[in-house]
Amino acid sequence: MFTERTSVGLDVHARSVVAAAIDGVTGELVQTRLTPSHEHIRSWLNGLHGPVAVAYEAGPTGFGLSRSLTAAGIRCEVVAPSKLQRPSGDRVKTDAKDALHLARLLRLDEYTSVSIPSVEQENARDLVRAREDARGDLMRARHRLSKLLLRQGIVYSDGKAWTGAHEAWLRRQRFDGPALQMTFESDFDAVLTVRARRDRLDQAITAMAADSEFTPMVRRLGCLRGVSTLTGFALAVEVGDWHRFTGNTIGSFVGLVPSEYSSGQSRVQGSITKTGNTHVRRLLVEAAWHHRARYVAGKTMRDRWELASPAARARGDAGNTRLHQRWARFNQRRKRHVIANVAIARELAGWCWSLAVLED
After folding, report:
1. pLDDT, tens digit, for every residue of 153-206?
2. For 302-323, what is each residue's pLDDT tens digit?
3. Separation between Cα atoms, residue 22 and residue 9, nearest integer Å
4. Domain 6-108 belongs to what topology?
5. Which residue(s) pair with 13 in the sheet?
6. Angle between helices 278-288 and 337-356 (to 10 degrees)
7. What are the Cα distances from residue 105, in Å, to 1, 16, 165, 296?
8. How many Å separate Cα 2 from the centre of its chain?
9. Cβ atoms of residues 202 and 131 within 8 Å
10. Band of the pLDDT at 85, cuts 50, 70, 90?
């Protein structure tokens, strides 16, 4: 229940902040435009009748304002934009109306807050996302290079691409035209540069995963097949507070549950919602493919188990067995592999949750 006297909605942008404050006693509405300076915003809030509660939408400006207001003793809620209730007939959107709408929802407690990460978690999350960007850049750079060669009728057919042998083959390529040779060298250099950047980020993530506040969780998550150190660390920092979910709700957070439109006696389910954290969803879908093969605890898995507690090892072994059995049943029913894998990824999210909240 809302207990503060004044509710404040902030529409935060990079160069301006529009504020709307509603006094719960007098009903007075105060609206103004502020600078993004945290000191300026705190000074304006201190001039209102207290106590004061503030809400603003999560966005590219981050959580610095929330941390600043919380440190000053002001309750600040960072609201999920996708969960905001908006009138269906409202066709006018301005910064002032958005700020007022936030202030009213805050007073009514009709909002969904996002989890505020710690500074260390946010820094680790940025590192993981930088590695994800490098992965995407490397994929695009490789595509540009391979398609350049394909247009010249040159295709590598001596084994798997992007190996040491493939790289040696690329270095032997020569072209008569100076322009084409320069284009090839530019694209090849882009592949090598981005790959080196990705490898440096991998080393930094591996080092942080081995000695940080996330280390115990990463080791527990590593008891599942397909969840390597990089994947486990990314899941740990992207989800953050796993205790706000359950084994059933974690799937909807990552958008792996079916969409649905039901009314009356009809019930229609469609493709997965694909809402929530895209990075976590991709990691889970990729990890789910590892459970298709026959489950045998090999050396790599046993090395990971040595780093985890006995309870985590037992839980991981049970999860690996269950997920492979699910794959086998889908294969018996001749389910399409991509659809079956999404179902496995949804259940894998639940097993990851159970390991993340497991007490060592």
Report:
1. 999 999 999 999 999 999 999 999 999 999 999 999 999 999 999 999 999 999
2. 999 999 999 999 999 999 999 9
3. 9
4. Nucleotidyltransferase; domain 5 (3.30.420)
5. none
6. 110
7. 12, 22, 61, 53
8. 30
9. yes
10. confident
C-alpha 281/C-alpha 271 separation (Å) is: 14
In whole angstroms, give the CA distance from residue 355 to residue 231: 14
Structure tokens at 322: 């269950």
Q: Locate all alpha helices (DSSP H) within the chain, ordered by sequence.
A: 38-46, 64-71, 95-108, 119-151, 164-171, 178-210, 215-221, 229-239, 250-253, 278-288, 299-307, 310-332, 337-356
| Token reading at 92 | 């006018």
The one-letter code for the residue type at 342 is V
Phi-psi region of 148 (alpha: psi -120 to 50; beta: other; left: phi over 0): alpha
Tell me the one-letter amino acid at 275. T
In whole angstroms, give the CA distance from residue 286 to residue 253: 17
Residue 220 pLDDT exceeds 90:
yes
Two tokens, residue 185: 């060298």
pLDDT band at 91; cut points 50, 70, 90: confident
pLDDT in tens, 25-81: 898 999 999 999 999 999 999 999 889 999 999 999 999 999 999 999 999 999 999
pLDDT above 90 (res 292): yes
Domain ranges of the chain: 6-108, 119-213, 217-356
| Residue 280 CA from chain centroid, whole number | 5
DSSP letters, 259-327, are EEEEETTEEEEEEE---S-HHHHHHHHHHHGGGSS-----HHHHHHHHHS-HHHHHHHHHHHHHHHHHH
